[in-house]
Amino acid sequence: MSQVITVSESLYARLDAEARKRGLNSIAELLERLPIGENELAYRQEAVRRIDALRERLFAAYGEMADSVELLREDRSR
Questions:
Q1: Would the CA dihedral through 36, 39, 44, 50 be positive or negative?
Q2: Contact 14, 27 (CB under 8 A)
Q3: What's the pLDDT at 41?
Q4: What average pLDDT does range 8-26 have in this prediction?
Q5: Residue 28: CA atoms inside 13 Å, Cβ hemisphere, count?
Q6: 16: Cβ–Cβ under 8 A, 6 or more apart, which residues?
Q7: 18: helix, coil or strand?
Q8: Which of 7, 28, 11 is nearest to 19 (CA)?
Q9: Domain limits of the chain?
Q10: What secondary structure does DSSP assign to 26-76, as a single string?
Q11: How confident is the model at residue 56, as a pLDDT?
Q12: What does the buried/exposed string (b/e) look like for 20-56 if buried means 16 or more CB atoms within 10 Å of the residue's CB?
């Protein structure tokens, strides 16, 4: 079932810009991805799980990555 709401042009423009900034095709996609109420904790836990999985894949593929802080400092000092 579809519902229609009325929003100001400025709010629509802000929502549209935010959707595009996130690489989404529509405001509807943006709204579908927003965590709401009790789902927010589950949403955050899923995000953390995905980050951990990415770290594991990167470690398996590349091993321990060197700390780049010293390289950045040297680069900035030039």
A1: negative
A2: no
A3: 82
A4: 95
A5: 5
A6: 27
A7: helix
A8: 28
A9: 1-34, 37-78
A10: -HHHHHHHS--TTHHHHHHHHHHHHHHHHHHHHHHHH-SPPP-HHHHHHHH
A11: 95
A12: eeeebeebeebeeeeeeeeeeeeeeeeeeeeeeeeee
Q: What is the pLDDT of residue 44?
A: 84
Tens of pLDDT, residues 30-77: 998 887 777 778 888 899 999 999 999 999 999 988 888 988 999 999
Which residue carries 């589950």 as its tokens?
Answer: 42
Encoded tokens for 19:
């959707």
| 72: amino acid identity, one letter | L
List the structure tokens of 23. Answer: 């690489």
* SS3 state at 12: helix
d(CA 52, CA 56): 6
